[in-house]
């Protein structure tokens, strides 16, 4: 990967010589490393002609979740904390991953589902102990 200085030098040399091969040879002798490809040099030249710079163009990036949506999500889960993230997504017309991220990162809440498990009976402990002893005798 060439630095911005190396890219600028390549564009300058290409303007002078109008030859990618000569530019590559000059690059190799100047920087003592493999030169960029012909396509790279031409792409940098096009970028320089279009923008006036060889710096990397930043994309639009991801839009952040609006404070209005964060407030709506918080209000939804305050009103009905047992609501699933998918139900809230349908209700609010927001992707469920957005709801998940807002709950975890902005509101510091963790979505989880309460599940009912079997209750331990008074005679369960002796059965468990008996089972463990049987397994130990089989192993030995």
UniProtKB/TrEMBL annotation:
<feature type="domain" description="DUF4817">
    <location>
        <begin position="5"/>
        <end position="54"/>
    </location>
</feature>
<dbReference type="InterPro" id="IPR009057">
    <property type="entry name" value="Homeodomain-like_sf"/>
</dbReference>
<dbReference type="InterPro" id="IPR032135">
    <property type="entry name" value="DUF4817"/>
</dbReference>
<dbReference type="GO" id="GO:0005634">
    <property type="term" value="C:nucleus"/>
</dbReference>
<protein>
    <recommendedName>
        <fullName>DUF4817 domain-containing protein</fullName>
    </recommendedName>
</protein>
<feature type="region of interest" description="Disordered">
    <location>
        <begin position="55"/>
        <end position="84"/>
    </location>
</feature>
<dbReference type="Pfam" id="PF16087">
    <property type="entry name" value="DUF4817"/>
</dbReference>
């Amino acid at each position: 990967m060439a630095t911005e200085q190396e890219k600028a030098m390549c564009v300058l040399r290409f303007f002078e010589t109008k030859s990618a091969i000569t530019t590559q040879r000059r690059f190799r002798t100047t920087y003592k490393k493999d030169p960029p490809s012909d396509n790279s040099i031409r792409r940098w030249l096009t970028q320089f002609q279009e923008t006036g710079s060889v710096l990397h163009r930043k994309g639009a990036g991801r839009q952040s979740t609006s404070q209005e949506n964060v407030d709506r999500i918080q209000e939804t889960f305050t009103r009905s904390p047992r609501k699933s993230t998918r139900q809230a997504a349908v209700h609010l017309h927001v992707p469920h991953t957005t709801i998940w991220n807002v709950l975890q990162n902005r509101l510091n809440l963790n979505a989880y589902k309460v599940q009912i498990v079997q209750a331990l009976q008074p005679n369960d402990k002796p059965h468990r102990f008996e089972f463990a002893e049987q397994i130990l005798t089989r192993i030995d």
